[in-house]
Structure formats: C-alpha cells, structure tokens
Amino acid sequence: MPKGIYKHKPLSEETKMKLSKVNKGENNSFYGKQHTLESKLKIGKVHKGKPLSEETKRKIRESSKGNIPWNKGLKNVYSDEIKSKMSKAHKGFKFSEESKQKMSKASKGKTKPPITEEQKEILSKIAKEKGFGKWMLGRKLSKEIREKISKSLSGKNGPSWQGGKSFEPYTTDWTQTLKRSIRERDHYVCQLCGELQGDRAFSVHHIDYNKKNCSPDNLITLCVKCHSKTNHNRDYWIKYFKMMNSR
User: Fold this and answer.
1) d(Cα 175, Cα 158) in Å, to the nearest integer?
2) Of 87, 206, 211, 239, which one is least surrounded by beta carbons within 10 A?
3) pLDDT above 60 (res 1)
C-alpha cells in the first residue's frame, strides 16, 4: 500500500470511538508502564510552544467536568524533595498578558470567603517558621512603588475610610489656644505611651471622633505615632479613652 495514503483522510467519530475502546485499560500496549525521565523530557520538548486548538481545549474541559482532584482534602501529599523540584521548575515563570487578562476576567465578581481565626493562626505560624517578611529587611521601596501603594489605599480604597469624616470642617472653638490648654492640662505628655513632648507639638485627639465636640472632656493629648494608631479600630479607642477618663 502506498505510503501516506491515509495521511489527510480524517477518521470518522465512530472509528475514533472504536479505537479508543480497543486501546483502553489492559488492551493498551503501554498499560502498567511508565515513561522514563528521558522520554518525558523529549515529549515535553516536542510539545513545547505548540498552542492547543480551541476544539482540544473544549474536549479537555468537558472530560475534566465533575472529576474530583485526587489530592482534594489530603494534607502533606508531596515530600520536601518534590516540593523543592516543583518550586525550581516554576522559578522565573511568568504568565502572558493574555493569560493575566483571562484570569482577571474569570475572577471578577467572585468573592472570597473570609479567613477564619484558625486559618489566621496557621498562616501566622507558617510565616514565623519560614521567616516570611525578612526578605524586606534593609530594603527600600522605589518612589514609583510607594506612589502606587499610596494611590491604591487612598480615599474610599483605604481600610480606615469612614465616609469622608476627615474632610468635615472644625468648629470655631477649635483654636490653637484650646489645643495648647489641653497639652498643658496633660503636662505635655502623650496619654497613651507616656512620651514627653519635644520640639514638635503633640496632637490633640477627639475621643469620640466628632470634630464639633470640642469639650475638654472629649479631648486628649497624643504623640504623632499614637495618634495614627487611633485611625484604626475606632470603637475600641473610644471605649479605651472613656474608661481612662472615668478613673
């Protein structure tokens, strides 16, 4: 029979099904065997850079539907050696812009479940053991990165956003004389950490965060560092300073 006579003749779906059935399980000549590392590398090299057709992608998706991953719910599946190899293999890998856009599109509108206290403890423990965060010691962020971070956390995007309260105007009672009198009353000492005021004047903080309430009982002296702390967990600090004043 002349060589290559069936080269361009497509197989019918019925023939494909029969061939697939015949070569399944123990009937397959490769049943129970494994490729050598050399063979795997050769196969990988041959297929490297070859894009999958849309039809192939669709078939892979359909065949994977409803399949439960073999490692679902299992812990410590991979040995440290395997993990090291996997980490080495993925080092330097970067997603294409097309892949990034697809992942971004797929994630839009999806909300992640909140992290439980147990999960937070586990993550914190892992971070301490692995020394995560130490890589930043002694390093400085570039001006561009700092500006991006600042922009991403400013205004409504900030975790301390309170609906624009900080932009509300102060009352006419809020004067330099009033602030000076509060610092003098508190002996120019931060009422949270006990630091003594230096060349820079300490802040005068509104305990209930209401700028219109300038009663001396609602004002307290804080250093710049402690004053910045009070921007978070406001309910906690209101209770804290009220208890302090009630002593």
Assistant:
1) 29
2) 87
3) no
Angle of CA points 126, 99, 45, to nearest 5°: 90
Instruction: Measure the CA–CA gap between 31 and 23, rounded to whole angstroms.
Output: 9
Contact assessment for residue 188 and residue 197, using Cβ atoms and an 8 Å cutoff: yes
- Calculate the CA dihedral of residues 42, 45, 48, 52 and round it to 10 degrees: -20
- Closest among 143, 149, 160, 151 to 227, alpha carbons compared: 160
pLDDT, tens digit, 9 for 90 and up, residues 20-51: 777 777 888 778 788 887 888 888 888 877 88
Q: Rounded CA gap, 204 and 173, in Å?
A: 13
In whole angstroms, give the CA distance from residue 208 to residue 237: 9
**Dist. CA 244–CA 231, nearest whole Å:** 18
Q: Which residues are registered as beta bridge partners of 204?
A: 221
**What phi and psi, each to the nearest 5 degrees, are found at residue 221?**
-85, 130
Tokens standing for 15?
Answer: 């023939």
Whether the CB-CB separation of 207 and 220 falls below 8 Å is answered with yes
The whole-chain average pLDDT of the chain stands at 80
Q: Which residues pair with 222 in a beta bridge?
A: 203
Do residues 149 and 141 lie in contact, with contact meaning Cβ atoms separated by under 8 Å? yes
